[in-house]
Prior knowledge:
The protein is of the alpha/beta class. It folds into three domains: 2-181, Alpha-D-Glucose-1,6-Bisphosphate, subunit A, domain 3 (Alpha-D-Glucose-1,6-Bisphosphate, Chain A, domain 3), CATH 3.40.120.10; 185-407, Alpha-D-Glucose-1,6-Bisphosphate, subunit A, domain 3 (Alpha-D-Glucose-1,6-Bisphosphate, Chain A, domain 3, 3-Layer(aba) Sandwich), CATH 3.40.120; 410-542, TATA-Binding Protein (2-Layer Sandwich). The longest helix has 16 residues, at 513-528.
Amino acid sequence: MHLQTIPTDPIEGQKPGTSGLRKKTRVFMGRHYLENYVQAIFNAIGGVQGKSLVIGGDGRYFNDRAIQVILRMAAANGAARAIVGQGGILSTPAASHLIRKRHSDGGLILSASHNPGGPDEDFGLKYNTPNGGPAPEHVTDRVHAESLRLTSYQIVETSDVDLETLGQTALAGMIVEIVDPVADYAALMQQLFDFDAIRALFAGGFRMRFDAMHAVTGPYAKAILEDELGAPRGTVVNGTPLPDFGGGHPDPNPIWAKDLMDLMLGPEAPEFGAASDGDGDRNMIVGRGCYVTPSDSLALLAAQAHLAPAYSAGLKGVARSMPTSAAVDRVAASLGIACYETPTGWKFFGNLLDAGRATICGEESAGTGSDHVREKDGLWAVLLWLNILAVSGKSVAELMAEHWARYGRNYYSRHDYEGIPKADADAVINRLRAALPALAGQTCAGLVVTSADEFGYEDPVDGSVSNGQGIRISFEDGQRAVFRLSGTGTEGATIRVYLEALRTDPGQLTLDPAVALAPVAQAAEAVSRLAEMTGRNRPDVVT
Ligand code: VG1
Ligand code: CO
């Protein structure tokens, strides 16, 4: 075993996006690519000498190989301890919890989330800070800068570490501790929720299906829902993590979790359905005959969280990403608590959670979470829903109907245009940006624009500023269109168009969402000329 300093050249294209660095797996497997990025992270955080790191991932192809490289590099850079999920597995929220619980100096999470996995698909890696959350922009900027001036990296030459056997071993002076990936997380969930009430719910015949989409939450969901809470065996489907997620996108939405949708909207539907993504931080919620949009789920959870023990004293505040619908704003107003609007990406919630300004946060992309960790948390959202269902005794459809009757309904849909040549996507956004100053007061496809701007955020805790976070155009009557470029794709550019329309009239609460959103969809096209400029007549994915 010996320490090596390997000369290397800076590698272009190591700029982290919305959630860490995501690239084609073969790019990560390319010569020095992973090594450069890991060394850049270590350098950016002032080295890892004497530090402890949590390491784990969603089990996708290359997860295990990458962990071996990271461990050898951490040891070579003088780290004192690596805490690794058994088999290299840790869901993103479980990793966040472990970083916090073990007071470690941060963690490395290997995942490309909901993106497909495999040698020709996607891989990703991100650094989370000691608070358990994704690195904020000033840290990722430093990582990028380090990646551009790197001349060498440190690694020890040694045989592979056994990732399967629980317990401690040594690697070139560094302790490698292999831990059960589920136990600590399951214990945390037990503290937050009324497990007795949920157990009684299942004992009383309540049935659900949890689709783990062949991704990381399978073992967590089986341990908690089936073993702990008494849901029948078979409640969790697709529960074994596979390196290629069974060939699909582990993306919990009505498109990629179609089997679950079909079940829930069909005659054999159980009371409740849920799914989670590749790394376990997203959730989809669907009741019998009733799909719940992520924005509505956030609002409902904020309104009913007091039914769960951890939130019985009320919420300090809530936060949502800018493109997320304003449904939760209406709940916050009624509760008399603050509601923050942040840029897309969980890293922007970190300061609000740390400062105790927000308790529950969420994104329209199926991410919801609270101050129990510093990541969004798929199973947490499912358990909070179960807790609310158990204590209220109501169905998902009843809860949503009552919610809309009280607060109004924010109809919502996101249209994704994928694989657009970057120049074309930039042209659409640049044209829109240039048009913004003259838009207010104009009529677009029959709707009057009430305001139009490009979202910029000043963090209320540390004052840091993030500009260029999406174009938002508000129309009369609570209708809104938002345009932004994805920061997580690995091929071409993805334009996301987010559409919203508020209806408060009791007769307007059960429309077909496509009908409710048709006027704002037309106005969005009129104002952006997206179809005309990209030649795309319809979105690739509608959620
Ligand atoms: C997407 C979502 C965003 C989410 C991010 C990471 O980003 O829109 O809401 O935070 O993915 O999710 P973008 O830039 O492609 O729109 V995931 O589950 O990493 O962990
Ligand atoms: Co994810």
